[in-house]
Amino acid sequence: MLRCAPHPPQLQALCALRYLLLSITSEDKENQLKSYCQHWLSLLATNQFEDAEKLIDINNNYGVVWAESELKDAVHDYFGSDAPVSFQNENIANCYPEFLETDSGSLIFGFYLPANGEITDLTVEFEFVPIGNNNYAATINDVHVL
């Protein structure tokens, strides 16, 4: 767990950091984020939801952590059914990934969520917030249909 004292006041909200931070040491940020998200997806596909949640360091701007129930609710809403939900470890390259580096230094990586045997139109939008020393705190901003 990180301590809050070393962070500038504008990052004090990151005191809610719960687990591990992503350290990006290479210039190929997009591939590192793709690998991170692929690992998260592989955990979902094997029903390791607690481990997947550990990859999310901070709540999003709405105070939400996209855990098992939130993800399954989004899939239920998408399919209009309460049928069991499954996630597939589809190669993210096949899920229409998008990468963006914002002016503030945050990194955005989004892709379509593979669920119930198909690549859905549900976009998972990860944000990686810089906190210094090449470390980033991960969150999922939203899971939605564009």
Topology (elements, then pairings):
Layout: E1 22-23, H1 29-45, H2 49-53, H3 68-79, E2 98-101, E3 107-115, E4 118-132, E5 135-145
Antiparallel strand pairs: 1-5, 2-3, 3-4, 4-5
Give an overview of the whole structure.
The structure is a single chain. The protein is of the alpha+beta class. The chain has one domain (28-145): Nuclear Transport Factor 2, Chain: A (Roll). The protein has helices at 29-45, 49-53, 68-79; strands spanning 22-23, 98-101, 107-115, 118-132, 135-145. The chain has a 5-stranded antiparallel sheet. The protein starts with 21 loop residues before the first strand and ends with a strand.
List the defining traits of the structure above.
single chain; 146 residues; alpha+beta; Nuclear Transport Factor 2, Chain: A; 5-stranded antiparallel β-sheet; 3 helices; 5 strands; disordered N terminus
CATH-derived topology: Nuclear Transport Factor 2, Chain: A
Alpha plus pi helix count: 3
Number of domains: 1
Q: Any idea what the CATH architecture is?
A: Roll
Describe the global form.
Answer: globular
What is the residue-mean pLDDT, rounded to a whole number? 87
Numbering strands along the chain, what is their spatial order in the largest sheet?
Answer: 1-5-4-3-2
Order of helices and strands: EHHHEEEE
The portion of residues assigned to helices is 10-25%
Evaluate the radius of gyration.
15 Å
Low-confidence stretches: 1-19
Strands, count: 5
The profile of the biggest β sheet is:
5 strands, antiparallel
Question: In percent, how much strand structure appears in the residues?
Answer: 25-35%
Secondary structure category: alpha+beta
Calculate the terminal CA-CA distance, rounded to whole Å.
35 Å
State the name of the first-level CATH class: Alpha Beta
